[in-house]
Amino acid sequence: MVIDKVKSGFLLAMFFMAIPVLGKKVTVAKDGTGDFNSIQAALDHLEYSSKFQTIYLKNGVYTEKVFVTEHMHHIRFIGESVKGVIITVSQARDVWRCENPDDFGAATFNVKGSDLVFENLTITNTYGLEASEDKVIDCLTEAGTSNQSGRRALPREKGEKDGTKIVRKDGHQFAFRAMPGATRMKFYNCVFRSGGGDTVSPWDVDGGLYYFSDCIIEGHVDLYCPRGNAIIENSLFICHNLNAAIWHDGSANKEDKSVLINCRFEGYPGFKLGRYHREAQMYLVNCSFGENMADAPIYQAGNRELQWGHRIYYINCSKDGEAYDWYANNTDLTQSDLTFKKVFKKKW
Q1: DSSP letter at 203?
Q2: Which of 96, 237, 295, 345 is most buried when burial is the number of CB atoms within 10 A of its CB?
Q3: What is the enclosing helix (H) or strand (E) of 318?
Q4: pLDDT at position 123
């Protein structure tokens, strides 16, 4: 895993020094030794203010969906250890949306609140790891019709009939899903894993601000797909799909970007690095690619007309085995131009 422990520890220490005031701390433990035995119970108990309150999770497997609603903010979710704290459910997005109007609840960790910190946690959605095959379900909501409306319409599979939905075992499966309006989130030493696509989906295109460090993200197509502004450093991506590992939507503001620094990419033989459907801007800095990565640049999927064009940039990237020309340096910017302060500016 591509992690500079000294640098990471320094950044983590500087971050916690920057928190002005810490509020209440509660402990969650499955064995009954804490204040609560579920994460949701702890969230529902806290009284929210501008002080960062801490939910400390003892080691254990927490089989529960977590809902962070709009009024829940300034929270630190701190695990005893990343391997020991596992938050998990089995949920196909398609099944959820055939019964509910939106994605709030389609993930293991569902977020509408802002100003959140996550550390030492493993968050998984196991649907695709457990399902044996695709299936067809009745779907009487908008998700089951060919005439969906709105920005978050579900894709329809080839051959689907109105009133039904094909649920693929490797379809959309969120481990983490943030709704529009949820922003200013930091993730340290976390593992996200799913058996399908869109594993990590922080989706506030209008104001999204997300920072990740020392994480592992594993899944299928678009397994890391932020909207708005995002930085991820010293992290490992594992792609079990041939279409694309990463994705970005920066369509709200021309300056919005997804920055990936000192990251490592591995996956199935022939996996493609990334794609985009909407306006996007990605910077890959000092990233390394496994030998299995295909000779295929990050590409535009679909035929949407984009006003800002192809904006994919590489700085000092490398690959195991055979090298490809397309990830050669193609920008005058350097890593010092893509820092937390310069990407997020005064928005954070």
Answers
A1: -
A2: 237
A3: strand 318-319
A4: 99
| Tokens describing residue 326 | 């397309």
For residue 221, give the nearest of 173, 259, 181 by alpha carbon.
173
Region 168-195: mean pLDDT is 98
CATH number for the domain formed by residue range(s) 5-145+162-261: 2.160.20.10
Residue with tokens 């020392």: 214
What is the rounded CA–CA span in Å between residue 167 and residue 135?
Answer: 5
* Separation of alpha carbons 247 and 262, rounded Å: 17
Using alpha carbons, select from 153, 178, 209 the residue that is nearest to residue 66. 178
Reference 77, options 55, 62, 98, 93; nearest CA is 55
User: Strands 135-138 and 275-276: what pairing?
Assistant: unpaired
Q: Which two tokens stand for residue 340?
A: 């937390």
Q: Which two tokens stand for residue 330?
A: 């193609």
Does the pLDDT value for residue 137 go beyond 90? yes
pLDDT in tens, 252-276: 999 999 999 999 999 999 999 999 9
Strand order in the sheet with 200-202: 66-68, 107-111, 174-178, 200-202
> For the chain, which residues make up each domain, given as ranges?
5-145+162-261
- What percent of the chain is predicted at pLDDT more than 90? 87
Type of residue numbered 251: S
Q: What is the pLDDT of the chain when averaged over all its residues?
A: 93
Cβ pair 144, 162 in contact under 8 A: yes
Please give the pLDDT value at position 113.
98
pLDDT of 120 above 70 = yes
Q: How far apart are CA 219 and CA 237, in angstroms?
A: 8
pLDDT in tens, 307-318: 999 999 999 999
Residue given tokens 């009284």 in the structure block? 47
Report the predicted TM-score, pTM, of the whole model to 2 decimal places.
0.93
Q: Which residue type is seen at 193?
A: R
